[in-house]
């Protein structure tokens, strides 16, 4: 069975997109700055879209039961295929209590890795870096259902006599060389005291990786429409 790739879109992208992707996602519901519930819940979505709740603004006195009630009504009304709790600010007890409450919803609910360890739900894990292989990347979550984030962001790898350092970077322009083992593209800058490699995965590289994931416990991919609309 083909694993769906959900592309997260802003409200503006939903309005202006002439042809929506097969699996759109709403980016994103937020914790209300004026009350104890949520804001930015869409009025309508294409059937089977994914709804995303973000902690871009962290919860502060928000009510898990109120949020649960709101989403228990919104998700069937919008005919969503599931809910993604994109909680990236670790260590907030209020965030955990909200995640715990929302995993009781009768639809698939995935929770970001910082909060998923103690919850019985799919886990949403960060994207595979260009220097990483898939199997060790997902190994800490063996036995769990995984929703994997996708990204075309790259890395610079600097090699000196003192060692090797890695730095994440924005998506690179077309790179001249291909590494078929890592399924990525790269460029080299050989300097007097260092060798600097810029590496990233194009959308074509990502497609190749996706085609080899059917034997793993990954059930959904999620990425940004603005990065991956050609995938």
Radius of gyration: 19 Å
Q: In whole angstroms, how far apart are the ends?
A: 18 Å
**Alpha plus pi helix count:** 7
Strand line-up across the major sheet: 1-2-4-5-6-7-8-14
Relative strand content: 25-35%
Q: Can you walk me through this structure?
A:
This protein has 231 residues and is α/β, with parallel strands linked by helices. It contains 7 helices and 14 strands. It has helices spanning 11-16, 64-78, 93-102, 113-116, 134-138, 203-210, 225-228, and strands spanning 5-9, 24-31, 38-39, 50-54, 82-86, 109-112, 123-125, 146-149, 154-160, 163-169, 177-179, 184-190, 195-200, 218-224. The strands form 2 sheets. An 8-stranded parallel barrel has the order 1-2-4-5-6-7-8-14. It has a 5-stranded antiparallel β-sheet with strand order 10-9-13-12-11, with no helix packed on it. Helix 2 (64-78) crosses helix 3. It starts with a strand and ends with a helix. The mean pLDDT is 94.
């Amino acid at each position: 069975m083909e694993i769906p790739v959900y592309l997260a879109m802003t409200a503006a992208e939903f309005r202006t997109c002439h042809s929506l992707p097969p699996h759109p996602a709403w980016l994103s519901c937020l914790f209300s700055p004026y009350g104890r519930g949520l804001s930015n819940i869409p009025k309508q979505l294409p059937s089977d879209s994914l709804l995303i709740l973000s902690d871009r603004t962290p919860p502060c006195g928000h009510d898990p039961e109120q949020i649960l009630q709101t989403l228990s009504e919104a998700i069937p009304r919008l005919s969503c295929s599931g809910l993604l709790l994109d909680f990236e600010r670790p260590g907030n007890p209020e965030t955990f209590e909200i995640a715990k409450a929302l995993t009781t919803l009768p639809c698939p609910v995935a929770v970001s890795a910082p909060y998923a360890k103690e919850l019985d739900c799919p886990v949403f894990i960060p994207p595979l870096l260009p220097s990483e292989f898939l199997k060790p990347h997902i190994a800490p979550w063996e036995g769990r259902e995984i929703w994997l984030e996708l990204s075309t962001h790259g890395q610079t790898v600097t090699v000196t006599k003192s060692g090797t350092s890695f730095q994440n970077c924005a998506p690179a322009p077309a790179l001249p060389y291909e590494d078929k083992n890592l399924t990525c593209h790269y460029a080299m800058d050989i300097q007097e005291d260092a060798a600097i490699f810029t590496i990233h995965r194009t959308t074509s590289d990502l497609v190749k990786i996706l085609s080899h994931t059917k034997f793993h416990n990954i059930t959904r991919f999620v990425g940004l429409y603005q990065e991956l609309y050609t995938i």
